[in-house]
Amino acid sequence: MIIDRFFKIKKSNKPGDENRLRSFVKAVSWRAVGTFDTVLLSWIITGKLSLALSIGMLELITKTLLYYFHERAWNVVKWGK
User: Fold this and answer.
1) CA-CA distances (angstroms) from residue 9 to 24, 30, 66, 69, 71?
2) Can you say whether the dihedral through the CA atoms of 77, 73, 68, 49 is positive or negative?
3) What does the alpha-carbon distance between residue 52 and residue 41 come to, in Å, rounded to a whole number?
4) Could you report the average pLDDT of every consecutive run of 10 residues in the chain (81 residues)?
5) pLDDT at residue 36, rounded to an integer
6) How far is CA 74 from the centre of its chain?
7) 21-39: string of b/e by CB count within 10 Å (b at 16+)?
8) Which pTM does this prediction carry?
9) Structural domain boundaries in the chain
10) Backbone angles phi, psi at 14, to 5 degrees
11) Are 54 and 62 in contact (CB under 8 A)?
């Protein structure tokens, strides 16, 4: 599958390891929830839906990337597994 190649998915022999695609999907789903919250709060504070949506879209991109790399870094940490 193309997505598998993009994320270089391979089977891990270590229990508890997550592949890159799973980390990416988790990041996107979490950001959807977070972005909804940001847009709602921005709309309440500014009173302007267009401004709230602009803030939300920018936040969606930056925080999705930050979360993905955070997940990948934590996957290397053996503590708590």
Assistant:
1) 12, 21, 20, 16, 15
2) positive
3) 8
4) 58 69 84 92 97 94 88 88 76
5) 94
6) 14
7) eebbeebeeebeebbeebb
8) 0.59
9) 20-76
10) -90, 125
11) no
